[in-house]
Amino acid sequence: MKQINRIIIGLAIGTGWTVVALAQGQKDWQAPDIGKLPDDKYGQMVRQGKALMEQTYKHIGPEVKDASKRFSGNNLACVSCHMDAGSRKFGNPWVGTFVSFPQYRGREDAVSTTEERINGCMERSMNGRKLPLESAEMKAMLSYLHFLSTGIPVGAKLEGGGTLKLKPLARAADPVAGKQVYATTCAACHGENGQGMRRGKVGDADGYQFPPVWGADSYNNGAGMARVTLAAGFIKGNMPSGITHTTAVLTDEQAFDVAAYVNSQPRPVKLNLDADFPARKNKPVDAAFAPYTPGFSPEQHKYGPWKAISEAREKGIYPAK
Q1: CB of 229 within 8 A of CB of 305?
Q2: Using CA atoms, how far apart are residues 68 and 135, in angstroms rounded to an integer?
Q3: Residues 6 or more apart from 262 whose CB is under 8 A from it?
Q4: CA pair distance 205, 57, nearest whole angstrom
Q5: Residues 6+ apart with CB under 8 A from 267
Q6: How far apart are CA 138 and CA 69, in angstroms?
Q7: What residues contact residue 305 under an 8 Å CB cut-off, 6+ apart?
Q8: At 183, is the secondary structure helix, strand, or coil?
Q9: Could you tell me if 94 and 141 are in contact, meaning their C-beta atoms sit under 8 angstroms apart?
Q10: Which of 1, 43, 189, 292 could form a disulfide linkage to 37, CB 3.0–4.6 angstroms apart?
C-alpha cells in the first residue's frame, strides 16, 4: 500500500456512504476475510454485525416476535442497497467508511458520527426508528464496519466507493420509457408491481429473495435511493442481478429512466423533510421535496433536466429557509 503523506479531509454533502478525502484514491482494495477472524469476543461481534446487515428483517424487522426489537419499518436488509455485504466496488461498499467518520454532512449541516449515519439509514432506507446507541445491535453493526476498514488509513479515498457517478442527462429522465426498461430488465426479480419476491409469507420475518422497490415495504421518500441520480448510478453498476460495474448492460439513459419510473411509484413518506439540508446551498438539485429552488417545479427537481437548476444555484439562488 502506498504511503499517504498528506490526507485532506473533504466535505461530504451527499446522502450516500462515501469515503470523503482528497487523497489519491486506492484502486486495489478489497474487503478483509471475515473467515480469518478468531472466535473471540471481537470476532463474534463482527459476525453478529454482518448477520444483522445481511438479514436485518430477521433480527430487527417489523415481523420479529419481540416487539421491542422492531426497529426497522420494512422487511428490507441493509444489503439490499449495499451489495455483497458492503464489499462490492460501486455497490455502496462499507469498506473504508468507518475511518471516514466523523464527517461533515450536508443533510444535517453538521459533523456526524458513524452511529448517526446508521440511524439515518434506519429512519429512511429502512423506514423505521433509531437504534439506541448503547444497544447490542448498534455495537455489532459498528464492529462490522470497523472490521471492513481494517488497514485503511483515516480519510483514505477508495476508488469504487459509493455508486457510479453518471453524467446527468440533458433531458428529463422519463418514467414512461423507464417502465419498459423495468418490464424487460427488472420485473423478473422485483415483480411487475414492484413488490419483490418473498422467501416465505407475510409475518414470518424471513424477508425477500429480491426486495420490493416501491410500496409500503420499501424505502421511504427521504432515502438516498429516492433521488433519481443516485438510484441511476446504483442501477447502472449493479442491476440486473449478476452484473457489476464492469459488465453493465443498461445505458446511462436507461438507468436514469428506470430510476425515474421506480421513484415515480408510491412509497412511504418521511415527515419533516423540509428540515433536511438547513444550509440550503447543500441541497441536491434532485432532492424531490420542498422547499424547492425558486423558478423550478417539483417535477423538474425529481426528474430533471437539472442543468438549469445547477446554474441557478451557482448564481446563489437556493431553496427558501
Answers
A1: no
A2: 12
A3: 178, 182, 194, 213, 214, 231
A4: 6
A5: 214, 215, 216, 218, 219, 220, 221, 226
A6: 12
A7: 168, 169, 170, 171, 172
A8: helix
A9: no
A10: 43
For residue 165, count other CB atoms closer than 10 A to its CB: 13
* C-alpha cell read off for 244: 457489476
The strand pairing partners of 210, in sequence order, are: 197
| SS3 at position 121 | helix
Peptide bond into 38 cis (omega under 30): no
Residues 10-67 have pLDDT tens digits of 323 333 444 333 334 678 899 999 999 999 999 999 999 999 999 999 999 999 999 9
CA geometry: angle at 130 spanning 273 and 47, to 5°?
130
What's the grid cell of residue 77?
Answer: 436488509
User: Per the structure block, which three cell numbers stand in for 195?
Assistant: 413488490
* Residues 6 or more apart in contact with residue 83 via CB below 8 angstroms: 91, 92, 93, 238
Contact call for residues 302 and 231 (beta carbons, < 8 A): no
Cβ atoms of 228 and 305 closer than 8 Å: no
Convert the pLDDT of each residue in 93-142 to its tens digit: 999 999 999 999 999 999 999 999 999 999 999 999 999 999 999 999 99
Strands (DSSP E) found in 37-137: 103-105, 110-112
Segment 169-206, tens digit of pLDDT: 999 999 999 999 999 999 999 999 999 999 999 999 99
DSSP state of 229: H
Residues with Cβ within 8 Å of residue 15, at least 6 apart in sequence: 107, 120, 223, 224, 227, 230, 284
Distance CA 277, CA 203 (A): 36
- List beta partners, residue 103: 112
